[in-house]
Amino acid sequence: MTTLLIVDDHPLQRMGFRMLVESQPDLVVLGEADNGADAVRRATELGPDVVLMDVRMPGVDGIEATRRIIAAGGRSRVLVLTTFDLDEYAYAALRAGASGFLVKDAQPEDLLTGIRVVAAGDAVVAPKLTRRLLDRFADQFPVEGEADASAAAEQLAVLTDREREVLTAIGRGWNNTEIAERFHLAESTVKTHVGRILAKIGARDRVQAVIFAYNTGLVAPDGS
After folding, report:
1. CB neighbours of 217 closer than 8 A, spacing ≥ 6?
2. Which residues carry this modification: 4-aspartylphosphate (predicted)?
């Protein structure tokens, strides 16, 4: 079973999400929150697999709540939902540590798929959208200090040549099918490589792997 916490300041929106989620035999709602501060508290208290997080809420918004939940180091992953399909929101959510970003008017099956994908440890945001976001907001990435650069170099050093190739491909926005075709590998082999790469570089999901590839220079701002 995949457990969820639903966070939204509109009761009808929470009800709709709950009804959809509870229609699935493998998903269960542990609780709800109507603001960011309560979301952080309830995520710590309940430890859900996935937090469905609204962005625009009074007080502590969804971006800050996401940042606090991820910083706490718990098991919960965050899937951010918003009415506005804007790069700024997606960028802020991913930088805060979210594992996915969807608009609220997404098809029900897309939301359910997104929940399951995030629960399984992958990212919901389309790879090419991630690249577009990183390219657009390149100048907003923090400059790595000497210690950070040294740590990144050590993480890169433990990757095999093939893993480095796959990480570069991830950074360019390629999905597993495209990587498999490019390197003449089975998709199951690509998935294995991706899992090992995430573990070695300490990334929670594919989105963080893209950011890592970007920040370490494996991929240039133009995607080359």
Report:
1. none
2. 54
What is the Cα–Cα distance from 21 to 4, expressed in whole angstroms?
9
| Distance between CA atoms of residues 100 and 171, nearest Å | 16
Looking at domain 2-125, its CATH architecture is 3-Layer(aba) Sandwich (3.40)
Can you give the pTM of this predicted structure?
0.70
Q: How many helices (H) and strands (E) does the chain have?
A: 11, 5
Residues 6 or more apart whose CB falls under 8 angstroms from that of 126 comprise: none
Name the segment(s) of the chain with CATH classification 3.40.50.2300.
Answer: 2-125, 138-215
**Order of strands across the sheet that contains 27-33:** 27-33, 2-7, 50-54, 77-82, 100-103
Q: How confident is the model at residue 146 (pLDDT cuts 50, 70, 90)?
A: very low
Residues 6+ apart with CB under 8 A from 87: 132, 133, 136, 137
User: How does residue 56 score in pLDDT terms, banded at 50, 70 and 90?
Assistant: confident
